[in-house]
Amino acid sequence: MPEQRVVEPEHLILEAPRERKFITGSQAFAEAVKRANVDIAIAYPITPQSETMHLVGDLFAQGYVKDYYRAEEEYGAMSAIAGAVRGGARAFSATSGPGLLRGLEAIVSWPGHRIPVVLGIMTRVVNAPLSIQPDNVEIAYLLHSGLVVLHAENQQDVFDFTLAGFPISEKVDVYLPVVVATEGFFVTHAKGYVELPPEDMKLPPRDPYKAPVPPTDCEIPPARIQRDAPVQKSNFMSYLIHAVWQQEVWSANRRAMKWIYHYLGGPIEVVNPKADVFIVASGCAAAQGREAQRYAEQEGLNVGLIKVKSLRPFPEKEIREALKNAKAVIVPEHNIVGWLAKEVKAVIPNSGIVVDGPRVYGGMTLPVELIMEEIYKALGIKRERTYA
Amino acid sequence: MGLEYVKISPGFEKYMPRDYVDLVTFGQFGKQVDVMQLGQFKELVEEHPMCAGCYMAYFIRVFYAALPNPEDTIVLGTAGCARLALSQAAVPFIYGNYGDTNAVASGLKRALSIRFPDKVKDVVVIAGDGGLMDIGFGMTMHSWFRREKFTTIMVDNEVYGNTGGQESGMSPKGIQLKMAPKGKQFDKINAVELAQTAGCVYVARISPTNPKRIAKVIRRAILAAREFGPTFIHAYTSCNIEYSIPTREVLADARAREKKDFKFYEWMTDEVKEYLEEIERKEKEKAKQEVQK
User: Fold this and answer.
1) Could you report the per-residue pLDDT of B144-168, keeping only the tens digit for each?
2) Range of the domain at A188
3) Reduced to 3 states, what is the DSSP secondary structure of residue B182?
4) Is B96–A67 a contact, with Cβ atoms under 8 angstroms apart?
5) Residues of chain B positioned with their CB less than 8 A from the CB of A232
6) Closest CA to B156 of B215, B99, B206, B213
7) What is the CATH number that goes with domain B52-292?
8) Same domain, A162 and A73
């Protein structure tokens, strides 16, 4: 490995010269970890995630990551991540679908424990019958836990979100875990162009004392770290302590927004802001939405795209503003429940303009034609079906 | 806490809580106390809400007095009775999720080893039979297989005491408890044998009838874990409530169990034996010299 010099996150993420590479999403995760000065990575196999943590294992073997092991299962992996981060280390792990759900008890406790960490999620069907394909229903389970949740459209997003995830998670006014989700296979196992900063640069090491909650390392006063668990005081105290603590977690989650603007240019991307009909989408559905917007433009239809990069904090204000003149909103998704459509409906005053779908699930691909069909319907254009 | 973090900056003594000043002045930071002097020094844990006559509370009191390095020790626990006292001690305590102790301790110990390669930081798990042998079983075993360098102490009250008296894997066969309405159908898990097979370098089984011996076992387990790998203590700490043991008879019960199925047992690898004997020989010499002075 090359000698890496520490540079400021602003330099590495925003200013450093970039070189174009043609790599998979799994490689993009690893390229971000390579430059993130990670102390420990903990792995457990599950398709389609495994390749990412293989590559991170290689980084450990090369000396980029200081410690690495294959855990017993995801609950053990995610609990050990919490232990390492409480001990002051910078940590990374990744999982998929059923693995995410197995680790969920630990993962959704991270915000309350104030564990700054980055977790990669490569989506996969979680419900029976078995499939290993990239349905993203699992993201719905993450939206109500206090985690910062970013959803990557492509390999470039995977790299950018993962690298920026570390400084965002460790900001004193945030101090929460950052999830970088992307569709399994479609992104993780396919190649795309990724602009990468030099590999001889890395983020500054984590400073665990720059924190709203101190690390548990016996290097800070006072001796009495925890006098009573809230539940021991009285029911009243436990309600109260839990309530104010969770309020602070969610305030911290909202405070992540300014850092998402700072490092990632904001929580949404808008194409054709003066459109009549908008496609609102995240992850791979945004890539298909982008194509549909392009098709529509070629056909002379006034269609726009809002790509949602940050699902938590959810860009309520930004989406409301962007949709204020919209006549119809189409929300294509890779899951059966339509979690993004529900989110969008909840933040605009005229939720009746939101079209529920199109949705594909079980990990199917999302043909652009399905989105086009909804666009024609919304614009009152009668068409013969043009696809088989 | 590195001793320097525990001490009060000169001039601030009068502004610190009395309790804390006593802890630093008359407590056990920076020195090794004699467990037989319990009650004559400021202990690391004093108040706790555990039941009257709880033998686990007594064991935990002795545990804190036995720590070789309290200012650089982190204790981990999980749901159950023990954490009621552990969370009130003057030693950092991590209470994670259900049965996660040995996974959290693995990550924590590794992080501390990365960040402080030249300092001694002891990590000790104290959890119950349910936490370690039922819900956390996989994580307990795998931390041993991986030879993680921390100590696991199972305070075995043979029941889920804190949730109201349900059968655990460590309850004796035949005993009628909640969730075992017809009596437990299978034997008590042989935790000591599992620990030895799984790679622990020091293993002990103890019924806490002799405080000096408890302290010695705890100290040995922690010292061995620093250098060689996982260590395990299986301690019988009866639940006088769920097993209806009159408060005055908890010690008699511990003695009876010691004769029956909690006979004192200690096993260690040859290298651990050599290492501990060397430390203990030096300590004896030092004590002798001090007496002569």
Assistant:
1) 999 999 999 999 999 999 899 999 9
2) 5-202
3) coil
4) no
5) 49, 84, 87
6) B206
7) 3.40.50.970
8) yes
